[in-house]
Amino acid sequence: MRKTDVRPWTPQWRERAETEMAWLEALLGGELLELHHIGSTSVEAIGWAKPVVDLLAVVRRVQTLDGLDEAFAQLGYEAKGENGIAGRRFYVQGGDRRTVHLHAFEAGAPQIGAHLQFRDYLEAHPERARAYGEHKRELAVRFADDDTHLYQEAKQPFVQRLVQEAEAWSAEMEAGGGLASGIPGDRDHAVGQSQTSGTEDDSDRTARRAQASSTVDGPSPASEKAAARLSADGSFVRPPRRSEEEMMALILGTARADERVRAVCLNGSRVNPLAPMDKFQDYDVIYLVTELDSYLADDSWIDVFGERVILQMPERMGLIPPEGRGSFAYLMQLADGNRIDLRLIPLEQAEAYLAEDRLTRVLLDKDSALPELPEPSDADFHVQPPRGSEFADCANEFWWVSTYVAKGLWRSEPLYALDHLNGPVRAMLLQMLDWQAGARHGFAVSTGKSGKYLDRWLPAESWQALLATYPSADSESVWTALLRMAELFGSAARDVAARLDLAYDEEEERRVLRYLLEVKEDAGQR
Q1: Over the stretch 206-222, which tens digit does the pLDDT of each residue have?
Q2: Which domain holds residue 434?
Q3: Which of 183, 419, 432, 448 makes a 20 to 30 Å CA pair with 158?
Q4: How far apart are CA 327 and CA 343, in angstroms?
Q5: H or E stretch covering 350
Q6: What is the pLDDT of residue 139?
């Protein structure tokens, strides 16, 4: 049973409509005559709508679509047939949590004009649109826990009045020589657009547009846009990447429209002045919210951020222990290439959250309740100098586990050898290189996650030596990597010990190196 879900209007719905229309144009090609964004998500003045984008397709022959169910399925659409309206082909995207409805009619069908004049009437009369939106919102509250059919039935009398008003307005426009349906713009794609006036009704006008479209030479701009979404082999490619400005407008716009969100913060590399900027930077976003339960009751609210490639919710995973401590994260890789790591944190935890990370910037504070923060800094992530015991433990662990790698290679157990080489041995090597980078630069540097910035702070020859320690799976390659790691570790450890006046057990290093070479020689004689 689908529940009633009405949300504040967002420009994301128009963007989604544009994306879907381009994909559909590429799929339908010359069979498609017109494509329109209709329904409440197409009229900003309504202010409230269910988060389902409605599209209206006008085609040459509706029966042709019946042979394209598999192609529609590749775009995520489920074919529903006429679904109660004769002459229609109806498709839904999103399963039970619907995101797009596609209504397809053959040119000349009377429903086409009815849909368009209803939309255009509300666009031309924003006061009636706002009244409709408020009515929808009130009913959504009243029927929040009920089947959506009760909501639909309750709003029907109001809708019927609007339909009658739209019909009267359309007749007046046509009698006066105007058009009830304006020239298609951002919401409409039409092949061979043609507008007529006079006394013809909507269905006649739509049929005339269809006739005109069949005589136009060359693709429309919309068709060219759709063609650009096809690769050389004809397969579909991902939608265009939204800019940083568009993403931030979406993130903040969603928060502003939601009374439960009281503040928005940004963390991570996008607020780090020293981090390199590129298109793969995540949007590490925090919503400080009044409560979590209403969000977690239905995760479809995150659909506003766009089509996803994959979603992870760590707090619901058993294999990987969550780190949220009462918060909840939605990690979203979006189809356009952007990624949002969005964490919901209860408002009462705001003070503790703000104290955790100096790479934090407040973007929105509805209640002016958050303290003023210093400029973001990565100082909390700077390499820290080791204590003598830490330094000694790192060296001991490196040399101890190196013997496991040698044992695995002698036994011809490459997975065992590689697991220890690229696990504890490499972890200790990277730790020592971190300390070396810190010691060389006054411990005022950050080497980044997984040591990704080490090349900035190490000597060039050390960086190249590190890269040379990554082997393939054959035995000789792993032996070479192990001995290179041993050489690099010993060199870095002696440098750190000298700079920080620490004791390094060079005799331990010599004994283990001798052992490794003996095992290698023995393995070669087997």
Answers
A1: 333 333 333 333 333 33
A2: 388-524
A3: 183
A4: 7
A5: helix 350-356
A6: 87
